[in-house]
Amino acid sequence: MGTFQSDRNKSIDAAFSEFDKKNPLVWKKFESEVFRAIQLGRTKISAKQLIGYIRWYVSIQTTDPKWKINDAFTSRYARKFASKNKKYQHIFEYRELRNGAETLKKQFLSPPEITVLKRAHAGYIVKVGKALHINWQKDKQQQLDNYTFNRLVALGLLQCTTGESRIQKWKPTTKAKKYLKAISKK
Asked: Do both 153 and 175 map to the same domain?
């Protein structure tokens, strides 16, 4: 048994993109089930469990001849939800994608974004409503703009370490720490 790419001659991202375009009902059902769980008071949701529920209990036909919904697409649906619903990015836990190291090397971060990551690594980011601040030393604090924050979250470099509350604490992910380590060696 080979890798996803060697078995199918395309990457997981390419296969997901194609599947998602051909099967929009899967996305609609995934999104509606996430919102249903949020309305029920859930602060953490398992994307794998949702995909399993959709696969077995929802009457959906897909274009995949072998699988109704491939397990490899689970994390892509969670990331798609987070990118479209910034308010609920914390609802899923994200692991580094298998091709994450390769993708990260191709990402270009601006010097201010790298500074934010370094300071967040030394401390944390606090989000109160729409206000964002980085606390990195005892009495050092810096205001953070939403664009930089959202970009770092979308790249999978920041994660929320608190539940859904008015005050959120954000820390760099393992992927961000690897990135900082890689660029410090240059």
From this structure: yes
